[in-house]
Amino acid sequence: MPQALTWPDAPAEARAAMPAQLRPAPALRSLVMGPGQALVAASRRTGLGFVVVSVVPETFQWALQGRTPVYASFWTRLLTAATPPPRPRPPGARARRGPAPPSRLPFIWPRLFPKPSPP
After folding, report:
1. Using CB atoms within 10 A of its CB, is residue 47 exposed (0-12), middle (13-18) or buried (19+)?
2. Residues 6 or more apart from 71 whose CB is under 8 A from it?
3. Is 110 inside a domain boundary?
4. In a domain, 77, yes or no
5. What is the DSSP track for 28-73?
6. How far is CA 110 from CA 14, 52, 54, 67, 83, in A?
7. Of 59, 41, 58, whose CA–CA distance to 50 is shortest?
8. What's the whole-model pTM score?
9. Which of 52, 62, 82, 118 has the fewest CB atoms in 10 Å of its CB?
């Protein structure tokens, strides 16, 4: 049975089956919570990067059911948590030339899979 999921800026219709939950630990950063503050997605610093884990199954269903805002918000939350922070430039290093890299990755799902037209 689908249960409510919460994260900052989560759409109200964010619901999914919860077959498991993560065990809270001091090194984990909570990303998505389920009912009763159950931890269902979290990140952890590992080496120079981050590892993100989620027990939310079949999120593709949100996109297939036209709930694109839930799908986009959920995956933006997880992928942003996996992105390492910008590395500081050493003192005296020259600024990069050319256009600045994008501040966030573009969301391409709607362009790859447009909604089918009604019969």
Report:
1. exposed
2. 59, 60, 62, 63, 109
3. no
4. yes
5. -EEEEE-GGG-EEEEEEEETTEEEEEE----THHHHHTT-HHHHHH
6. 19, 24, 23, 11, 22
7. 41
8. 0.71
9. 118
Read off the pLDDT of residues 20-79 as tens digits, 9 standing for 90 and up. 999 999 999 999 999 999 999 999 998 888 999 999 999 999 999 999 999 999 999 999
Domain of residue 54 covers 1-6+23-83
CB 40 within 8 A of CB 56: yes
- Distance in angstroms (rounded) separating the CA atoms of residues 77 and 33: 12
Q: What token pair was written down for 29?
A: 């950063």
Cα dihedral 102/106/112/115 (nearest 10) = -150
